[in-house]
Amino acid sequence: MFAREFFPDSKRGQLPIVPACEACNNAKSALEHYLTAVLPFGGRHPDSHAMLREAVPRRLARNRKLHRELVAGSMSLAGDEKGQRVESLVVPFDSNKYVKLFNYIARGLTAYHWQVVVPVGHEVEAVLLNPVYEPHYRRLLSLPAGARVDESVGDGAFVYRGAQAIDGPALTIWWFQTFGGLVMAGDNHLPEPHAYTVWVTTGWGHGDREP
Q1: Per residue in 6-17, pLDDT tens?
Q2: 135 near 153, Cβ under 8 Å?
Q3: CB within 8 A of 53, min separation 6: which ones?
Q4: Angle in degrees, CA 71, 47, 86, rounded to 5
Q5: Which of 77, 79, 114, 159 is the Cys-Cys partner for 177 at CB 3.0 to 4.6 Å?
């Protein structure tokens, strides 16, 4: 569920694995092909810096089009870090691909931890949130649950928490932190860079709701 290419060679063991159909596996791989080259730019985890130095140049050398897009859209942006004003290099980022990946990962983790396949047609919604807007989702995650997980993958490069509803095994909520919190800018409500996390909920299928 977490592509090996997100991690250094020494931290690729014991990654969670579940079966996937060919269509989903291909769609997920296409997202990862983009994200493994771009996510390290915004990471705060030490491994994201290592991947940026060692792996990303090779990946961009194989994807000239993406390399040109990142160079053309890059810019310097000022922000506060530990009380000091610093200049950072930012690159353009397709956040839609980021949240789509976690739609797949949330389905996979539901199967991995609780042996439940989220049926086709059930609602799966991923949202990208900075800490200012997280309280509502944190309250949902803290509600009484049928089961919970709290895991770290790749020595903290990917951290996630999940809860399964008592009254519906396919109803879940997930919190994901990538590379120590992915730092992004461009939010009209928060002009300076902030660390964002992903939340995913898997819900009822069409026609399953009670009146």
Answers
A1: 998 888 888 888
A2: no
A3: none
A4: 55
A5: 159
